[in-house]
Design a protein that fits this description.
Length: 334
């Protein structure tokens, strides 16, 4: 935990509540004075000088790869997206993804929280005591998944863990240099991990099979907004649940269409406003196109008039507006 703070300005695309798409330049507040020069500061947990910070700042690292998280089971590596899913008193709980693909060893979670026992991606749930500035514990909460990249926290206190890969059952994937594994189950889905206990390891199929990146839930209506980290085309999606807050009950998946702008990867200008609507994705579990490429969903959406982005990343919902970003979008990068 880092004591102190800073402000950041960002540029993003925002989806307004009245169905408009707008590009806004970031305007982060700049402090009149900084915190002073940076210098190496030792980690309170390990004593290692991991960060350079201004004078008076301190930090504690926790949740290291290789630490024991269950009897005979060590914490996996490749830490990725994470979010705080709850707080009780001074104890904060967060769920963290592990973006694993080609690591041997199989699932690190109990069988009840394992989707595909031969692969090792998943999540670990960690607790931290903010009063003492001390790590409490870590437990496996989901495994048997692949390339758990980002995701998002739900208003009801769970974590949506997103697989950033499209693999069908029976497809062969190289796990190590010398070992190619034939997948027992299909991958490319979103999994829900509760704030307490284990995930049921059941994919939320109606949220689509694609190279998922992030997810954000609008607390007003329970709609989930989803980004796709795909190139040369990616879609921006929304999932309308049958029952808000009960994603396992299924729902409808749709892709954004900006009127008169089928290609939003380049050629846009700051301040531009576009009217938008949503097109249906009829087959959300068809993640592969006819030629075998992992772009089945975005091709469905484009065929129905959806707009093309490229490599979409983070997404948040704030006061009725949705903000998301593109790694490679814009004239400077595309």
């Amino acid at each position: 935990m880092l004591q102190g703070g800073l402000g950041l300005g960002v540029a993003a695309l925002g989806l307004g509540p009245v169905g408009t798409l707008l590009a806004k330049a970031g305007s982060g507040l700049r402090a009149s004075q900084g915190y002073g020069p940076l210098a190496p500061v030792s980690d309170r947990a390990t004593g290692l000088p991991l960060l350079q910070l201004p004078r008076g700042f301190e930090y504690t690292s926790f949740g290291w790869a290789g630490e024991e998280i269950a009897p005979g089971q060590s914490c996996p590596g490749k830490h990725d997206g994470m979010g705080v899913v709850g707080a009780e008193g001074d104890i904060v709980t967060l769920v963290r993804n592990h973006e694993l693909t080609r690591e041997p060893g199989g699932s690190f979670a109990p069988a009840a929280a394992t989707y595909d026992s031969d692969v090792r991606g998943g999540t670990v749930t960690l607790r931290f005591d903010t009063a003492r500035g001390a790590f409490v514990d870590a437990t496996p909460s989901l495994s048997g998944t692949l390339v758990n990249c980002a995701g998002g926290v739900t208003p009801w206190g769970s974590w949506l863990s997103c697989e950033e890969i499209v693999v069908d059952a029976g497809q062969k994937v190289r796990i190590t240099k010398d070992y190619v594994h034939e997948m027992k189950r299909s991958h490319g889905f979103v999994f829900e991990v509760p704030g307490k206990g284990l995930s049921n390891a059941e994919p939320l199929l109606d949220m689509g099979q694609m190279e998922h990146e992030a997810a954000a839930v609008d607390p007003r209506d329970g709609i989930v907004y989803l980004t796709e980290d795909q190139e040369p085309h990616a879609g921006f999606y929304r999932f309308i649940p049958k029952v808000p807050g009960q994603l396992h009950r299924g729902g409808r998946l749709q892709m954004l269409r900006a009127e008169g702008a089928p290609d939003l990867r380049r050629g846009r200008r700051v301040g531009e406003v576009l009217k938008v609507r949503w097109v249906e994705i009829e087959e959300p579990t068809r993640g592969r196109s006819a030629n075998g490429d992992p772009d089945g969903l975005v091709r469905q959406g484009l065929a129905n008039g959806g707009s093309s982005f490229i490599r979409l990343e983070g997404v948040i919902v704030e006061e009725g507006r949705v903000f998301f970003i593109s790694t490679s979008g814009g004239d400077a990068r595309c």
